[in-house]
Design a protein that fits this description.
alpha/beta; seven-stranded mixed sheet; binds nicotinamide-adenine-dinucleotide; Rossmann fold
Length: about 425
C-alpha cells in the first residue's frame, strides 16, 4: 500500500480478519496491477462519506429505544451510490464501510453505472413487533434522507431486510420530498415499481457464474454435490437453481444448525422449514452436523451465503470442495483465501458471484425512470448476458496476469473506478 496516509483512518481500527481489514488487504493485492492509476489509490481506501445516525423509536410498551444507524457512500466516482441496508445486532460502522467498498468494486466489475454504498442498523429485528420494525425503518430512512435519492444513493435489501421494508423506505422518502419517488430504493414490491425477477436475482446470478466457472474447470453441474451456508434469500434460491440444473444439495447450514444427506436434500422442503422457528434443523430426512463438520463436507461446490468472515483459515484447511463460490459478501478471511489458493481450491469472489442482485436492482431503477416494465424472461436473459460477460472478462484477466479470480475481478473493478476518478479530476 502506498503509505499510511492513504489507509489510516481515526474512526476505525481494522484487524487482519475484520471486514474493513479484509477489504484493505484485497485492495493492497491489486495495487501492483493498477499502473499509473495507483496514485489515486486513496479513493479506494477511504470512504467518501460515512453518516452515523441515532434512530429513536417508541416501543409498543411506551418506552423509548435508541438504535445506531449508518449509511456509508464509499465511492460516487462512477455514478450514484448503490448498496443494501442490513438490520443485524452485530452491524458496525466498520462492517458497513467494508460492505460499501465491496459494492464499489462489484458495480464496477460488472460495469453498472453506480458507485458503492451500504447502510445498516444495529438491531435484532426479530425481537421487534411489526409496528416497531416499521417505525425503525421510517425513522432510519428519514435520518439518512439527506444522503439518499434516485440520483444520489439508492438502497436495497440485504440481511434481514425485504420488499416490505423497501416499501416503507420508499413511502417515507416520498412523504418527505412530497412526491412519489419509486427510484429511491430497489427490491420493492411489484405493485410499487419493483421488478420481476429481483427476489431471485442474487441466487440466480450465483448459479449463472457458477455454471460458467464449471465449464472452464470441466466440472459437470449435473450430479455435482453442493454445500451451502446460509439458507435465507440468497442461499435458498442458489440451492433451487443448482438443484434445477441437476446438482445435489448435500449439506446446508443456517444460524440454528446444519443438516446433511449424501444423496441430496429436498430443496422445496428445506426452503419451507427454513422460514420456521429452528430453521433448517426442522428438516426431516437428513442427519445433523456440528458447525465445524459442515465445512469438511464432501462436495464439488461450497457456497457461503450467510455473513462475512465465516470461512476462516482453520475451516479452509478442512474444505474438501473443488470450488468455493462466495454468495455472501466477504465470507472468506484474507488468511483463509491464501490457504484455499495454496490447496488449489478455486474461489469465485463475491464481487462477481453475488452481483446478480444489484444487476436486477439496476434494471428496476431503469424501469422506474421510464415507467415501462420488462417481462421476467427479458430480465433473466439480460441478467445472464451481463453476468456471463463479466465472468468471461474476469476469467481472461486471471489467465493473462496469472492471478486469482478475486484479484482479477479487483483489477477490472478498481481500474474502472480509478479511471473514472482520474478523468473527472479533483475539485477544486
Ligand atoms: P437473509 O437474512 O435472507 O439470510 C441469511 C442466512 O444466513 C439465514 O439463513 C441465517 O440463518 C444464516 N446465518 C446467519 N448467521 C449465521 C451463522 N453464524 N452461521 C450460519 N448461518 C447463519 O440474507 P440474504 O439476503 O440471503 O444475504 C446473505 C448474504 O448474501 C449476505 O452476505 C448479503 O450481504 C449477501 N447478499 C445479499 C443480496 C440480496 O439480494 N439479498 C445481494 C448480494 C449479496
Amino acid at each position: 500500500m502506498s503509505d499510511a496516509s492513504t489507509t489510516t483512518l481515526s474512526y476505525v481500527t481494522p484487524t487482519p480478519t475484520s471486514p474493513w481489514g479484509t477489504y484493505l488487504a484485497q485492495i493492497e493485492a491489486v495495487e501492483p496491477y493498477l499502473g499509473s492509476l495507483s496514485r489515486w489509490i486513496g479513493t479506494l481506501t477511504r470512504p467518501k462519506r460515512a453518516l452515523i445516525v441515532d434512530v429513536p423509536i417508541e416501543m409498543d410498551d411506551g418506552s423509548i429505544a435508541h438504535y445506531e444507524g449508518y449509511r456509508v457512500q464509499h465511492s460516487l466516482s462512477r455514478g450514484p451510490g448503490k448498496g443494501g441496508v442490513r438490520f443485524h445486532p452485530d452491524v458496525t460502522l466498520e462492517e458497513v464501510m467494508a460492505l460499501a467498498g465491496w459494492m464499489t468494486v462489484k458495480n464496477a466489475a460488472v460495469n453498472l453505472p453506480f458507485g458503492g454504498a451500504k447502510g445498516g442498523v444495529r438491531v435484532d429485528p426479530k425481537v421487534l413487533s411489526r409496528k416497531e420494525l416499521e417505525r425503525l425503518t421510517r425513522r432510519y430512512t428519514s435520518e439518512i434522507g439527506l444522503l439518499i435519492g434516485p440520483q444520489r444513493d439508492i438502497p436495497a435489501p440485504d440481511v434481514n431486510t425485504d420488499a416490505q421494508i423497501m416499501a416503507w423506505m420508499m413511502d417515507t422518502y416520498s412523504a418527505n420530498v412530497g412526491a412519489t419517488t419509486t427510484g429511491v430504493v430497489t427490491g420493492k414490491p411489484l405493485l410499487l415499481g419493483g421488478s420481476l425477477g429481483r427476489v431471485k436475482a442474487t441466487g440466480r446470478g450465483v448459479y449463472f457464474v457458477g455454471r460458467e466457472l464449471a465449464k472452464r474447470l470441466n466440472v459437470d453441474i449435473k450430479g455435482a454435490r453442493v454445500a451451502i451456508q446460509g439458507f435465507g434469500n440468497v442461499g435458498s434460491v442458489t440451492a433451487e437453481m443448482f438443484a434445477e440444473a441437476g446438482a445435489k444439495i448435500v449439506a446446508v447450514q443456517d444460524q440454528y444448525g446444519s443438516v446433511h444427506h449424501p444423496a441430496g436434500l429436498d430443496v422445496a422442503q428445506l426452503t419451507a422449514v427454513a422460514r420456521q422457528p429452528g430453521g433448517v434443523t426442522g428438516y426431516r430426512g437428513g442427519e445433523s452436523l456440528s458447525p465445524e463438520e459442515f465445512w469438511a463436507t464432501d462436495c464439488e461446490f461450497l457456497i457461503p451465503a450467510a455473513l462475512e468472515g465465516q470461512l476462516t483459515a482453520s475451516r479452509a484447511r478442512v474444505v474438501k470442495a473443488r470450488v468455493v463460490i462466495e454468495a455472501a459478501n466477504g465470507p472468506t478471511t484474507t488468511e483463509a483465501d491464501l490457504v484455499l489458493r495454496d490447496r488449489g481450491i478455486v474461489v469465485l469472489p463475491d464481487v462477481i458471484a453475488n452481483a446478480g442482485g444489484v444487476t436486477v436492482s439496476y434494471f428496476e431503477w431503469v424501469q422506474d425512470f421510464s415507467s415501462f416494465f420488462w417481462s421476467e424472461g427479458e430480465i433473466n436473459q439480460r441478467l445472464d448476458q451481463i453476468m456471463t460477460g463479466a465472468f468471461a472478462t474476469i476469467w481472461d484477466t486471471h489467465l493473462q496476469h496469472r492471478v486469482t479470480l478475486r484479484t482479477a475481478a479487483f483489477i477490472i473493478g478498481c481500474t474502472r473506478v480509478l479511471q473514472a476518478r482520474a478523468e473527472r479530476g479533483l475539485y477544486p
